[in-house]
Write a structure and sequence with these properties.
The chain is an all-alpha fold and about 60 residues long. It contains two helices and no strands. The longest helix is centred in the middle third of the chain and has 55 residues, at about 10-65.
Amino acid sequence: MCHQSAKNGQKDAFLPEKKKAIPALTGEMKGLAWKWSKVTGKWNEKACEWDEMAGERSEMLGMLR
């Protein structure tokens, strides 16, 4: 199927459109990835804080025992 359309030149007609669409998509993906990394970065900071707090709590509990 693909080979026939390539012979007819139909496949080539779609390539310029695809080439235009790909950078736009990758740009959007990069933007989303950057936003997501910022969000996950905040979550990681919170998780670290919670780990520290949990560590302190367990130390306090250890002292109480």
